[in-house]
Hints:
Strands 1, 2, 3, 4, 5, 6 and 7 form a 7-stranded mixed sheet that branches. It is globular and about 50 Å long. It has a single domain (7-45, 55-205), classed as Rossmann fold (3-Layer(aba) Sandwich). Helix content is 37%, strand content 17%. It is of the alpha/beta class. Strand 3 (75-83) and strand 4 (86-87) form a beta hairpin. The longest helix is centred in the last third of the chain and has 27 residues, at 179-205. Helix 1 (18-30) crosses helix 7. It has helices at 18-30, 67-71, 89-96, 99-104, 125-138, 152-155, 179-205, and strands spanning 7-12, 37-42, 75-83, 86-87, 111-118, 142-143, 166-168.
Amino acid sequence: MADPLPYVLVLYYSRHGATRQMAEQIIAGVESQPGIQARLRTVPPVSPTSEATEPEIPAEGAVYATLDDLRHCSGLALGSPTRFGNMAAPLKYFLDGTSELWMNGDLIDRPASAFTSTASLHGGQESTLLSMLMPLLHHGMVYAGLPYSETELFTTTSGGTPYGASHVAGGRNDRPLDDHERQLAFAQGKRLARLALALDSMRAKH
Length: 206
């Protein structure tokens, strides 16, 4: 039986669907590269009521991530809408529970990136991406943003940053991804896949 393909974990939280749309473009970029696949996962919402629980499998959309999804990934794309310039609480709650992986060094030298969506153009995209970068660095991951060889970074009038792909969803969260936003998210997934394969190969040699 052949070994399963390595995978990039595309882990996101989305309230209104915009971050999910970005995740789909990241996946397309990952899977444009031979020899690797994408695994889409989400996280449950956080309730202010301590007794509230979510079903183990959501009614629709991606299934909830487990620590094993993260432990065995060859790369990670982390996505969240902004919450006052920071990642959303459900995603942070999941990351706060990954100390077991940190103690074992499970994610050291794995490539990672982040993506986000905001209602307005200056709604905290870059600070949100930086907030997601910090736990990845603590895990010893290798952060990969978007280089300016992706020329859409020079011409976009909506989302797109060197820190990671982004999207402006509008005040009603109903603005679809435009061409530049789609292309940059695709490019980010493609770059992450190439880096994951390269770093997998280096680890195998050592």
